[in-house]
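Weekly modeling sync, notes
Attendees: S.R. (lead), two postdocs, one rotation student

Agenda item 3: backlog of single-chain predictions. S.R. asked that every request posted to the team notebook include the full sequence so nobody has to chase files. The rotation student volunteered to paste the first one in as an example of the format we agreed on. Action items at the bottom.

Example entry:
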Amino acid sequence: FLEAFESLLRFAENRTSSLFETAYRPMAKEAAEPVKELFTDISLYILGAETTVESAVLRFFDSLFPLVYSRLINPGITDLSEDYTECLRLTRQDINPFGHYSKNMVTELSKSLWASRMLSQALSLGIEVINSTEHAALSKECSRALVKMQYCPHCQGLTLIRPCVGYCLNVMRGCLASVAELDAQWREFISTLEYLTNEMAASHELETALAGIWSSINEAILHAQLNGPQLSATVIPPVLGQLLQPQGANSRCSQVPAQSRFDAECAVVLLNVLFLPCREFISYMKRSRTFYASIAERLCDGDLVMRDSSTCWNGEDVV
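Predicted structure, as returned to the notebook:
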């Protein structure tokens, strides 16, 4: 699941990087690091890190605004000092140069990535539960009951007699009572996995959100360019003072190539790589809903016990 998700994430990152390289070359080199940080933060969020999609997206736009302002809106700026850059970063939060596009991007990503984050954490939790119950500790009473069931007939020379089904079930249920208590929680866990998988697959929402990051960023940059004169008038006098005197504003819109059909098809293929194994896995897991409740039945099956009306051992005698 994580490998497939990372492939989808890398596709979205490459698509976003190509946006700057083809449409915004003056800032492409400097924008590479913020783009990388954005997708790293998204990946960490999926893995359960103490972060949010909102903080990752807004931090990206904080880093993007100084570049947009100095390379596109006021291309005459040549020296971007640390103080000036930080001033622009702080100003972004006040003047909202990217309009509603930054908030829309937060909303779309938060909704679609939440289920992926929860599924990743749920799978990790399931692994811990399975590992912790792989080797059940047997009490002294359980060990005595198992010996009595398996070997006491041998003392009477009855080496071929097997335990009766009911007797075996009583012994195994007693030995595995603590493990069987996981039944209700395990059933709920399987239902949660199924719900989260359906949430992720609904209407290709995850694919749409990730593959659309580049488009949201492009719309945000175009919005800032179109409002370049107003931004310059707002930023320079009241906020930045004499830190910089720009050499004119430029609000020309870059021509951005439309997303090709190949890109869309590639994203859908990656999505299928992600979701088809998930669906198959959940289908398999659904068959194990009763696993912890039916361990005794599974153990008292086959050659261990006598299932027909033949002679069997009931713990005290041959019946």
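Discussion: group reviewed the output briefly. The chain is about 70% helix and 0% strand.
Action items: rotation student to repeat for the remaining queue; S.R. to check formatting next week.
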